[in-house]
Queue: 4 jobs
Job 1
Amino acid sequence: MSTTKWSIDPTHSAIGFKVKHMMFTNVSGKFENYDASIVTDGDDFTNANIEFAADINSIDTRNADRDNHLKSADFFDAENHPKMTFRASSLTKTSGGNYEIAGDLTMRGVTKFVTLPAEFSGLMTDPWGNTKAGLNISGKINRKDWGLNWNSALETGGVLVSEEVKLDIELQLVKQ
């Protein structure tokens, strides 16, 4: 079977996350600059070779002060660790269009193995004849596992920033 290369369509994709702020509301953010190398056996994604990288300096939470704090040594330490990377080791079908994607996630120089739920939306041809694939990756990670430890205690109890980070990654891929 021949291999197929895919690229991310950045106009129809988003690398997003949410974190609880003050223990009761979510703050959303995203990475504006990212890239991936995705190679499949034909159109079968179960044996895909997926490598992804996001530019930490492109983080956007709609607040420049917060973004700069996230880039600092308190969190991502972008000066010393400018990229967050993910290298998939498997994409396993669980049922219907549901999958689990597993691999090594590296942030701040720390690599941890993660398994995240994924939904494969299938293949479609756009109005210009391009073959597209849809993939949504969600899940939760604990930021402290990667050394993103900064926090501040609240007078009322609890902390300013949750340890749990919810991932919301929406990818539209283009067959090359």
Job 2
Amino acid sequence: MRLAFTLLLNLMLILSATAVHAQQKLLRDPELYERQHFEKRCESVKYGADFISRIDINNDGITDMVVNEGSIICDGDPGPDCSEEGCPYNFYLQVKEGGYFMIATAQMYGYDFIKRFGNMVFVLKMHPKFCDRTDSKPCEMTVRVKGTKFLTISKK
């Protein structure tokens, strides 16, 4: 009886998590969505050349999008949400039916998008605390996006 209850509880948690994910609103254009956000927030806003990157982040053949908020100048303030831990980056996946949804946001210094063992992976340059370190050298976290999840391959 207790095993059946545990299985039922686990099934309910899985279904509720799936329902929340399924209810996320698809965005037709994340770039427009992000620009509108900063145009409401700032009296004057400028976007750098690397504000938007259009790349296939999950190796499914569909172009996705990465937004670099560090490339924004809001009312003369470069990267208004940046700190000593880096700047916000938002990762959007495009679905084959049309539209995008955000799968992650991360505070980081930057990234390289490279091919390893046949798959494209990110090497995220982050604050050393994300590698459980206290020195000043940036943490390099290698991650692969599989489906809709970031999978950490290594940290150094």
Job 3
Amino acid sequence: MSYSKTFICLACSRKPEGRCVAGKEFVNGAFGNWIRPVTPGDHSAITNEQRKYPDGYSAVVLDYVAAEFTGQETGGFQAENHLILQPSKWKLAGKEKQTKQFLTKLADSPASLWTNTCSNSFNGVNDRVSVSKLTQQIDSLYLIPVTKLIVHVEYIDEKRKVRGEFSYNGTQYKLKVTDPKFEQHYDKAGKHDISIDYLTISLGEPFEGYAYKLIAAVF
């Protein structure tokens, strides 16, 4: 039996085969826990077709999305995952104007972004967690306040790589950016210092023994 949930979209980031869509549940005028719609499979990505509304437009950040689900995903460590009904039947339930005051109501306050004891990846800082530490389901999404972001743009084998460097609770992070709308503004290689308000941080699926911390949305 399927069930309905409405959520405010706080990430619609790139991932293999589609997008990682996530947000906070909206019930009776109040915001609740994180929810990440997923499909069965290795990558669990939401395809562009699956996130379309009946009018042909697609779900984006700060949409209120009404979706149908068939159950919570029990495998893996991401506690927020719910399997979507297929074929998908997403509906736009409203839009939110982006304001710092609105996001303040939704912000999380973790002491740290998971563990910072693993080795860094190439060009990353405190950007991954060993799979050996992910033995149970945990919160894998946070909306955190960040006022300054250093955007690093480089080209490797003609492919653009974008990372964001920031400080949170006294710890420095340099993470891969997967927010496509944000990335499109940065084509020139080099460093760019910008002022922001919030970041959605996601702990992605395991890859070669690690789960990587990703900047899934920039506000």
Job 4
Amino acid sequence: MAQNEGPGAGEENDGLHRPLILSDELQAVVGEGPMGRADVVSGLWDYIKKNDLQDGQEINADEPLKAVFGKDRFTMFEMNEILSDHLSEAE
């Protein structure tokens, strides 16, 4: 098997792992970027669980999450759409 084939081949270049620049508000929650979207989402879930912010399918935002999502409560389904406003392509 060639070096660029098989599981994980090119992983760092796919859409989920391509390094992105994070807004200051998002970095306050998940840490400094750049990082891939998959790592951002994982970091958000770690933060939400650590701070016991999930209520069923809704997230009760504390102050750092309010700065990112702009509201007191949001659903896990809204999360990815809103995240796009806080991510930009690394140069």
